[in-house]
């Protein structure tokens, strides 16, 4: 059976590029970094990348979230991975929670994919692995873990943890 994943990109840190001008750092959101991640991974599945927005997640509006929902609803494929900024990833997941017949994993990174120390490749790899075995629902893939969207929260440190067990952060 042939597997195909639709990747929907919305911007966020994963797609950022920083530049220094006049002593301050500014960022631009460039093309979808998922294309680079997938090219380097040479995956054994079919995929398509759909770019919806190029925004920091703090700049996403209710209209943007509706666009993401409508786009996911219109995608015939049952497996969708959305790259998204982590600050409002749970809000977008909440908006998508009305979709019952698809498996959707939202994923982001704490550092841009273009940075050597980025967690982007790792997080996307976790999302791809998880989407193969998850039942329909809305999930968030971050920090090597997969969470149901309504069972996790983001800590001030940037890590995502389970709401039930907030002491599950390993600091090895």
Keywords:
six-stranded mixed sheet; two-stranded antiparallel sheet; Rossmann fold; globular; single chain; 4 helices; 172 residues
Summary, kept brief:
By secondary structure, this protein is an alpha/beta fold. The chain contains four helices and ten strands; from the N terminus they run βββαβαβαβαββββ.
Main beta-sheet annotation: 6 strands, mixed
The number of distinct β-strands equals 10
CATH topology: Rossmann fold
**How many domain modules?**
1
- CATH top level class name: Alpha Beta
What's the helix-strand series?
EEEHEHEHEHEEEE
Radius of gyration: 15 Å
Derived from helix and strand composition plus strand pairing, the structural class reads alpha/beta
CATH architecture term: 3-Layer(aba) Sandwich
Let me know the average pLDDT: 89
Poorly predicted spans: none
Distance between the termini: 40 Å
């Amino acid at each position: 059976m042939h597997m195909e994943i639709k990747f929907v990109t919305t911007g966020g840190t994963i797609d950022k590029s920083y530049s220094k001008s006049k002593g301050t750092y500014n960022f631009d959101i460039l093309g979808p970094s998922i294309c680079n991640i997938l090219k380097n991974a040479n995956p054994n599945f079919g995929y398509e990348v759909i770019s919806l927005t190029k925004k920091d997640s703090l700049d996403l509006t209710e209209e943007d979230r509706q666009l993401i929902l409508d786009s996911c609803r219109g995608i015939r494929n049952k497996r969708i991975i959305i790259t998204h900024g982590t600050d409002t990833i749970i809000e977008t997941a909440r908006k998508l929670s009305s979709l019952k017949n698809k498996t959707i994993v939202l994923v982001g990174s704490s550092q841009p994919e273009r940075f050597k120390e980025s967690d982007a490749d790792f997080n996307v790899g976790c999302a791809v692995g998880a989407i193969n075995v998850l039942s329909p629902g809305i999930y968030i893939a971050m920090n090597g873990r997969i969470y149901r969207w309504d069972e996790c929260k983001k800590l001030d440190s940037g890590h995502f943890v389970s709401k039930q067990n907030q002491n599950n952060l390993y600091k090895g």
